[in-house]
Amino acid sequence: MVYDKCDTIVAVAERAISLRLDEETARALELLMRNGESRSQAIRAALIGEARRRKLEIAAADAARVAADPKDRREIA
Per-residue pLDDT averaged across 1-23, rounded? Predict the structure, then answer.
């Protein structure tokens, strides 16, 4: 892996994050910025989008677990 790019992301002045971008990540960031968003905006949107996706995955897994458990199904009926 090549780590030739380093960015500092500033969401809030006191919450700066530094990271090294590999080629795949750099291309992904460039793609996200094509609509005119700044680096910070694109990274924030990506983080929020991923967090929402993971919350939905967790909720779906919980729902499947409850649906598969007869005791849980009786409790919510």
Answer: 68
